[in-house]
């Protein structure tokens, strides 16, 4: 199996040649940067910053590049997540009025409108991303108002009770638990933690849910299979309860701030 560095080197050179001056920067983020990458399961997470919004013509080019990468590294097929976004979109409030392109595990390459949800990723790349091409992320990507980042995180939290209804495979259930743990910790301490780190800290903070959180962590990092028994009812209850608690705490904080 090709190492992550070999795959990233291939991707970087192919993108540099095909996109030329349209590509302003390419950045690695996620578990490989956070330090808890699992060779057998983790994805490679990248942000490609472009000179202009992606369109259907560029999508055809990118589809060919991704197909070629999958042929050269079949064991990484479906495990490379790339978001293509223009610098103008990142500079706009929540990317409003712009299109981005995405490819991720279980999701084919496609165009979609930029939303405030994407701000969380852009800020994580700016703060922690590893530069593969272009200037350091902190120099290319603009600073984002912390209030906007918090609003984007709360938007994620607000949407999770609806999203979790489709999380029937155990892998999706594990992802739901770990991702909500990350949001919980980010809102508490302002830091972007890895899935493992967030799980461990949240299990300590929410002992009532520690068993479920440990299950989600172990499934994710110990190569669980989607043929394993899931824990859908518990996962749904966890998401509903923790989401509601986070939002209620935010309302109390806002009320206290207004009263001062």
From TrEMBL:
<dbReference type="InterPro" id="IPR043519">
    <property type="entry name" value="NT_sf"/>
</dbReference>
<feature type="domain" description="Adenylyltransferase AadA C-terminal">
    <location>
        <begin position="140"/>
        <end position="243"/>
    </location>
</feature>
<keyword id="KW-0808">Transferase</keyword>
<dbReference type="Pfam" id="PF13427">
    <property type="entry name" value="AadA_C"/>
</dbReference>
<dbReference type="InterPro" id="IPR025184">
    <property type="entry name" value="AadA_C"/>
</dbReference>
<protein>
    <recommendedName>
        <fullName>Adenylyltransferase AadA C-terminal domain-containing protein</fullName>
    </recommendedName>
</protein>
<dbReference type="GO" id="GO:0016740">
    <property type="term" value="F:transferase activity"/>
</dbReference>
């Amino acid at each position: 199996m090709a190492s992550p560095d070999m795959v990233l080197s291939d991707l970087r050179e192919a993108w540099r040649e095909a996109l030329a001056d349209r590509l302003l920067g390419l950045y690695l983020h996620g578990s490989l940067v956070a330090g808890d990458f699992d060779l057998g399961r983790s994805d490679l997470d990248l942000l490609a910053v472009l000179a202009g919004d992606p369109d259907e013509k560029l999508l055809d080019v990118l589809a060919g590049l991704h197909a070629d990468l999958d042929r050269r590294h079949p064991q990484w097929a479906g495990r490379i997540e790339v978001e293509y976004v223009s610098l103008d979109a990142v500079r706009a409030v929540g990317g409003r009025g712009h299109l981005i392109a995405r490819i991720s595990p279980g999701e084919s390459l496609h165009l979609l409108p930029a939303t405030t949800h994407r701000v969380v990723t852009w800020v994580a790349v700016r703060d922690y991303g590893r530069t593969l091409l272009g200037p350091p992320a902190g120099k290319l990507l603009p600073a984002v108002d912390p209030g906007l980042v918090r609003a984007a995180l709360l938007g994620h939290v607000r949407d999770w009770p609806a999203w979790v209804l489709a999380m029937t495979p155990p892998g999706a259930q594990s992802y739901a638990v770990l991702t909500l743990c990350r949001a919980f910790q980010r809102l508490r301490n302002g830091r972007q933690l890895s899935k493992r780190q967030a799980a461990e800290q949240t299990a300590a903070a929410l002992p009532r849910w520690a068993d479920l959180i440990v299950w989600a962590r172990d499934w994710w990092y110990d190569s669980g299979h989607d043929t394993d028994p899931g824990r859908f009812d518990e996962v749904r209850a966890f998401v509903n309860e923790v989401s509601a608690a986070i939002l209620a705490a935010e309302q109390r904080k806002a009320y206290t701030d207004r009263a001062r």
